[in-house]
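PROTEIN DESIGN WORKSHEET
SECTION A - STRUCTURE
LENGTH: 167
TOKENS:
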């Protein structure tokens, strides 16, 4: 079952992130995003009452765009190691993208596995058009609203919790 996170899930979400990423960094990021009020959507995958996966979307600002683009960053997304390769990550991404569409988001950016995210429509060429702290095949974007990333110039700014400067 995939559902929005609740306050009762906070410790379990931190644990899933620590286990999946092999350390505390992503769990700390999630806490900072919550504290800063920078959560657009945060969903958990649950099995028999236990949180086995998590995905979070936060605001992403594109400076220099001729019109405001309602964009978000997908980060982090994780599944407990013993539950990986069972379709939970894919289900989280699909449900998360649907939630972002419902909330009027127009584009999603991710830094992730180049073999995984393109199956949902993420493309490197869309992300490469913009200056960002990332580049290469792992940095991808998806248009939830067609042509929302038809930009010739722009600079990507992540939420403060990421501690990143744009490219």
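SECTION B - SEQUENCE
RESIDUE ASSIGNMENT:
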């Amino acid at each position: 079952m995939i559902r929005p996170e609740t306050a009762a899930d906070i410790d379990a979400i931190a644990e899933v992130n620590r286990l999946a990423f092999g350390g505390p960094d992503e769990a700390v990021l999630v806490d900072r995003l919550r504290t800063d009020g920078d959560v657009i959507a945060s969903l958990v995958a649950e099995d028999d009452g236990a949180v086995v996966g998590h995905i979070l979307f936060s605001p992403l600002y594109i400076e220099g765009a001729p019109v405001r683009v309602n964009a978000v960053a997908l980060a982090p997304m994780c599944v407990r190691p013993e539950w990986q390769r069972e379709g939970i990550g894919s289900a989280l991404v699909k449900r998360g993208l649907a939630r972002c569409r419902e909330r009027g988001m127009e584009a999603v950016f991710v830094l992730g596995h180049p073999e995984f995210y393109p199956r949902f429509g993420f493309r490197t060429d869309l992300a490469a058009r913009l200056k960002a702290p990332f580049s290469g095949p792992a940095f991808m974007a998806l248009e939830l609203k067609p042509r929302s990333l038809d930009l010739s110039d722009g600079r990507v700014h992540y939420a403060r919790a990421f501690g990143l400067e744009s490219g």
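SECTION C - NOTES
The mean pLDDT is 93.
The first strand starts at residue 2 and ends at 4.
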